[in-house]
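Input (Arginase/deacetylase):
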Amino acid sequence: MTLLLSHLVFLALSVLSILSPSSAHSYHDNAYPGDSHQVPLTNPSTNDRTPDPLTDPNQAIFNAASVGVDISQEPWSSKYGPQHDLGFSGPLSFSHLEYRRCLEDASMPFDIGIIGFPFDTKTSYRPGARFGPFAIRSGSRRQMSGSGRGWTLAWGSSPYAQGSNVLDCGDVPLSPYDNSKALDQMEAAYDTLLSRPAPVHSGTDGKERYREHTKQFALDGKEHPRIVTLGGDHTIVLPILRSLNKIYGPISVIHFDAHLDTWPPMGTTTQESVNHGSFFAVAAEEGLLTNTSVHAGIRCKMIGFDDIQHDSTVGFQVITTDDIDDYGVKKVVEKMRQRIGDKPVYLSLDIDVVDPGLAPATGTPEVGGWTTREVKRILRGLTGLNFVGADIVEVAPAYDHADITGIAAADIVHDFLSMMLLDEPPRPHVGPFEEGEEL
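Output:
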């Protein structure tokens, strides 16, 4: 009888624990990540929120200053100094930049914000690009923005020494179940970051260190931050263009890709017709694009020349992969710059523009692509155009080896920053050569 009563008491306590408010809190904390509205800790008798010592600084379990700890005199600090991060250590942000969850934290203004769109449920072949933002940040670890090691011979400068605030804004918590909701979440997130006030910069000598980049094109006449987005499959560009349209109206696009991504929307539902191969056609139908956009690196197989003719109605001019062999890098850059002119332009780079021998981790690989060096050369040549944003997409690290795609993508983002901040392309390296000898 005693054993039976013990079992009954244990069962009753178990039922009460399941029905208690604390259990409900635990359930919601582990609910689907797209729903950020979680049940807070509450006191059931007063319905007041109970402070959480892990998140509330006023409830800190231990405060060094309050107990008289002098960190400078402790063994580590007195012997080795600050606890700085190494290239392979520390929290994961792009190039060890300052990190904020910018959608809920507006405490740090930025000129260029880096945001992740972990989304891959609109792909036609291999998924996995939802892990792209992580892979790109991981590939950037050796860049060490805070250590002053951003200067390169190719650029002759560092993007972190241009007097601008570059901030890693984290990832947007996108629904992995509802594509329509996810696209709306992306647009809302981009709207939020674009609406933040851009900081004004000057050096200690009073000289301006950062010039206005977007004010002259903005419909409201204000300077707006610029966003570099880490994808994610290429569909993420549609909500980005919708957001940019609210600030700038129709814009031009420079599109690095093996594929056109302008195929006519098809399918029996609205959501089926929007995917990573049709989003530019949808954008054109919505009036988001000018008629002066350009592809770079096209080499995919098509149904026929009709695909190219339709592509021109979307507003694009085509530069193929082979054009770089027939005309050279300088002529490719020249034609791209002529096409864009002085209009506001958005740059979108699918990592599959690079040959899969050099960047295998992507969803729809196409052989015969440009080398990473050729892509980087072209990006330098585009410096000084009126960029209002940029992205890199379709990095799917499950298909990578030795992280080479993530490292390549991170280095391209590093080039994006310099390209967006400098006024003109860098001069060729001279060294043992003389100016004017370059090809």
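Residues 2-19 form the longest helix (18 residues).
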